[in-house]
């Protein structure tokens, strides 16, 4: 390949491994299972440990297979550096472990994935303050900022009610205030949207979801976009200021979260995710198309009380989503009219599978209030607009006609 030529999204990801040079002409980066890496020169080993030259130290801190995936995700997000973790929550937890201290303050969107909400609740009990706000309006974020605010955290499309944060204006606010802006890009993926475009300093991706795409490997990543000025961040330890300033944050995260906390991604999982990533754009085109068709059908059915999908003109942030994203994502949720039992409805589906994952090749459904958001309690669910009958749908790549027929038949039965 011509390394000087600029290629499209899928072409770049598909050929990224071999552009770096792979043993024996393999088209995929091999699975390197070793946790230790030997050097013929002990001085070189010391130099690698001291960060004076590149190399692998120990499997917890890096691995050739994982490194190849990190480079692939970094290409997707147009970043300066990416770190991979065992799970998406491991990536978000790394932010807390490496970048926050007692007395710090976080402003977070109130519309969050359930486990992220739980993590911020834990953080608030450990000497750090967290303010939950309606991030669909930048004014709410601005009102919550204090002199101790270190991070603003939002999701692109909230799971499961699909609220969309005021992404660009929040980015402008964070830049003016010198605050680290972190965007979870899992619901959109780097194919539909790059948070760097709205000023995000760090980007989270749950690689388990649409990037891996086949429900066969857990993983997460943090990408430093190069947008944030780490020289103004007060929590960087002097020891990690040896590198170029734009790499201070990722250096501290690698040491304080990946090395010390040990949430490392294994090489086998990294290989599964890397192979899955090659077809992400193709899958997203199909799942987004299926999601729009299914959401449109359900919205027109009198037995459905509400449908929440950014691709529908009725969605409060439809115009914003149209401006920001290539398409509207593969996830939506809907409520059934009173008198229709959501469990009975789900049990009548033949293709859609009751399961808690999302971003899979198969369509997955789950009764939100009774499962993934059950632990937070009715009051917190109500504050997030999660009705007791809410059903989340992660749309797969099935044939559109089969998918529509499955949901129609379940409503008619």
From TrEMBL:
Which GO biological process annotations does it have? cysteine biosynthetic process from serine; L-homocysteine biosynthetic process; transsulfuration
- Which Gene Ontology cellular component annotation is one that this UniProt entry carries? cytoplasm
Q: Which GO terms describe its molecular function?
A: cysteine synthase activity; lyase activity; O-acetylhomoserine aminocarboxypropyltransferase activity; pyridoxal phosphate binding
- What EC numbers are recorded for this enzyme? 2.5.1.49
List keywords of the entry alphabetically.
Lyase, Pyridoxal phosphate, Transferase
Which cofactors? Answer: pyridoxal 5'-phosphate
- Where does the record place the modification N6-(pyridoxal phosphate)lysine? 209
Residues spanning the membrane: none
Q: This protein's superkingdom?
A: Bacteria
Tell me the protein family, please: Belongs to the trans-sulfuration enzymes family.
Its name, as the record gives it, is: O-acetylhomoserine (Thiol)-lyase
Q: From which source organism is this entry?
A: Janthinobacterium psychrotolerans
